[in-house]
Specification:
Elements lengths: L1 E5 L2 E5 L5 E3 L4 E4 L6 H7 L8 H16 L3 E4 L15 H13 L1 E5 L14 E3 L2 E3 L2 E3 L11 E3 L4 E7 L2 E6 L1 E3 L3 E3 L10 E2 L3 H7 L4 E5 L4 E5 L3
Parallel strand pairs: 4-5, 5-6, 6-7, 9-10, 10-14, 11-15
Antiparallel strand pairs: 1-2, 2-3, 3-4, 8-9, 11-12, 13-14, 13-16, 16-17
Helix pairs in contact: 2-3
């Protein structure tokens, strides 16, 4: 985990896209998209049905490593509103064990709109913590400090003649967009017009590595 500062608060970011907020004893993640594979399978596109288990195991490791007591999922936690009902038994048990011992908040996204809680935790449209608004999709006209997900930002690097894509946070003075934490999620280029429309052209892509936070002006 590497230090990341935003809106006067200190956080720690991971290459996988989690954000640890020590002063709030909280972990923030976005876009888990649990049961995405089973959603595709229902439409005839058969994919390995292990995405939820992999995502929840990775999330469990972050919870154990940080020792947090609260967790905020910033929307699209399930790939559709019925995703919780399709969880395999082992994944459901793992999720239930985490929601039972944490103050767990599901912020509703566009994919899981109408989600009815069967997995523990509580559901919010958005909330405010420490003066920062937590929601699923950034609102360009809201000037309050804000954290969100939705866009699955990635930054493409050219290394030794190879193009490498990495999860990234996208930051401006008042907005921070988290990458997707889910094991089975694609990504949108950090410089995509839809992202820049929300954060402005002076935003920076933040790529956590094992020991430092790499910063790339998106305009470059």
């Amino acid at each position: 985990m590497v230090p990341l500062s935003f809106a006067g608060h200190d956080f720690f970011a991971t290459p996988e896209g989690a954000l640890h907020w020590p002063v709030e004893q909280a972990l923030l993640v976005a876009d888990l998209h649990l049961e995405k594979a089973s959603w595709f399978a229902a439409g005839g596109q058969m994919l390995p049905p292990y995405d939820s288990q992999a995502t929840l195991e990775a999330l469990s490791k972050e919870i154990e490593r940080t020792g947090v007591t609260r967790l905020y999922c910033l929307g699209d936690s399930f790939h559709d509103r019925f995703g919780c009902d399709r969880l395999p038994e082992t994944a459901r048990e793992l999720l239930a064990s985490m929601t039972a011992r944490l103050d767990w908040v599901w912020i509703v996204g566009n994919h899981d709109s109408g989600f009815v809680d069967h997995c523990g935790g509580r559901i919010e449209v958005e909330c405010e913590v420490g003066g920062i608004v937590l929601r699923h999709e950034a609102e360009e006209n809201d000037q309050r400090p804000e954290m969100s997900g939705h866009y699955h930002p990635k930054y493409r690097l050219s290394l030794k003649g190879r193009s490498v894509s990495r999860r990234c946070f996208v930051a401006s003075a008042s907005k921070l967009i988290l990458p997707a934490f889910g094991a089975f999620t694609g990504g949108l280029d950090a410089g995509h017009p839809e992202i820049l429309k929300k954060v402005g052209p002076s935003a920076t892509a933040l790529v956590p590595s094992s020991d430092r936070l790499l910063r790339f002006p998106i305009a470059a």
